[in-house]
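Revision sheet: structure tokens.
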Amino acid sequence: MRAIELPDLRMPYPLRVNPHLAGLHAENEAWALEMGMLDATDGLPDGKAIWNRPQFQAMAVDQLTAWTLPDAAPADLRLNCRFNIWALAWDDYFASAFKQGGDLQGALEFTARLRTFLMPDRAIGLPEPANAVERGIADLQQHLFPPRLSHWRAAFNYALVRYVEAGVEELSNSLAGNVPHLFDYAPFRRDSFAAHTAPYSVELSTGARIPERVRYSRTVRELIAAFMDVMGLANDVASYEREVHEENDVNNLVVVISTSMKIPLQEAVPAAVHLVNSRMQDFEKIWQEKVPLLADQTGLQRDERSALHAWIEGAGAFLSGLHAWYTGASRYAH
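Predicted:
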């Protein structure tokens, strides 16, 4: 099957690059090396490293972070870059250690261990890390929640629990040949892409919080849902060749549409692109039409309106950065 033409994915927001990108690469490669993700003997169960240096450099995680968080201060940029490295390390570790061999029991045990790092018993503390993924998240737990973002601790860690547990569900689906139904897939993809952590990253970058009195309104919930759907579903389009043809993964939007609608994969490709573009248009429309109406109806003050606008603008920049990474990083090259 022909590779998907990624430029068909809609992106209305211009790419902006964080001015602190230049100093990011070397220090984050050093962090990955310290955590055992690079050139290590305990990176994977077979003694191999998760990545060698060329693989790590080709992922361009520093660019991903600088593109998605163009307004972040240096310390916040560095923190989010390390989180991105960890999320990709978990993904590649899980694929190599469990997906390739169909080791569901091993995946369950690995994930149960990770839960203790994400939802630790405060009286006991964290266990001793046994591999690079555990070492990375143990280190990040010491830094992820500065005082101004401490309100995120429970929600962010719960989002990560959903992320790693979704990996087990994906493996179970693939082993059983159980393709998710389209109606169920979008909410599940928010979990499996760790999309519920993205609002934290936007707040980290912009310093803006969604005002409390509209945070749980229908309009804001619709906006965030569209934001998260674009992230994960666009990733499915970008990674279709690798996931489906190389990894035999059934957890991909193209396969889901093909199976749910009973159409050939060739027809499901443009349908998937159309669906992603539709969710991007939903995000735009909610921002342009529903958010101003919400602000008027709830009587948001000027500073609240400014914070809401800054956060949404940061979310648009986040999507633009992801789009640039999907279409430019060798991780998604066909």
